[in-house]
Amino acid sequence: MPSLKDIKTRINSVKNTQKITKAMKMVAAAKLNRAQSSVQAARPYAHKMHQVISNLVARAEEGSHPLLEQRDPVDKVLVYAIASDRGLCGGFNSYLFRGVENFIRDEELSGEEVAVVTAGRKSRDYFRRSKHEVEKNFMDVVDGPGYDEAKRLAKHATKQFLTGEYDAVYVAYNEFVSAIEYNTLVEPVLPLSKEIFGAGEADGEEAEEGMGASEYIYEPDEEGLLAQTLPGYVEVKFLQALLESYAAEQGARMTAMDNATSNAEDMIDSLTTQYNRARQAYITKEICEIVSGAESLKG
Fold first, then answer.
1. In this structure, what are the phi and psi dihedrals at residue 170, rounded to the nearest 5 degrees?
2. What domain count does the chain have?
3. Catalytic residues, which ones?
4. pLDDT 10s digits, 48-100
5. pLDDT tops 90 at residue 101
């Protein structure tokens, strides 16, 4: 049985840990508030740009821009795994890595070679230990991300696709839902096609019906417009992924630290009860020894 001093030392240690987890929860909550505001502000713009680009792609002629090039067969695939720089955020990173692993397994079953680009220290460390090919590591892009960080990723992805190094590009990230919920997504980025935009073709048909089946008039021209908008859409796609991932990370960390604080409180209560029982047993033992000594002197 541990001594009173050992139990007291452990209680103090758990209390100190609880102070740390409580402080980390408050910091994560403050960051989450700002990150959530950024996500909510960016979503309408990203959604509207998605609609515009989907209409352009639906009407674009084949070969009108290199980013629209459909390669058959697809031999090499590049996936960007956006994780976090730090841990202590529950299953945030492990769920993402599991999703990327499942994606890689499915692609390899189809006969495709898959390489990974990591964003965040946890992603770098995980895939460095794995058997998968790591094409590049991006540091300092996931903590408080902005447009500059998204532009770095988009520029690299566009270059890898246009040079023919890879035939398709995907991005894997955790989509923010709420402070306690996120979804792991692996979404296609390049090439830009009707399949990527999903409902883009249907939206184009509806737009045609609303305009009397008329065609768009491009100004200055179709190639010039696509050359400006398509790279910008790739940048917005990565920006949205970074913002969503950052907000989900802060929500996961806040929840994890809240659970850790509650668990520490339960542990303190349990140790306090154990300390009181040990102290009571020690006092009882001392009383028994005193009474026994007094009785022996009377004897």
1. -130, 160
2. 2
3. 89
4. 888 878 777 777 666 677 888 888 888 899 999 999 998 888 889 999 999 99
5. yes
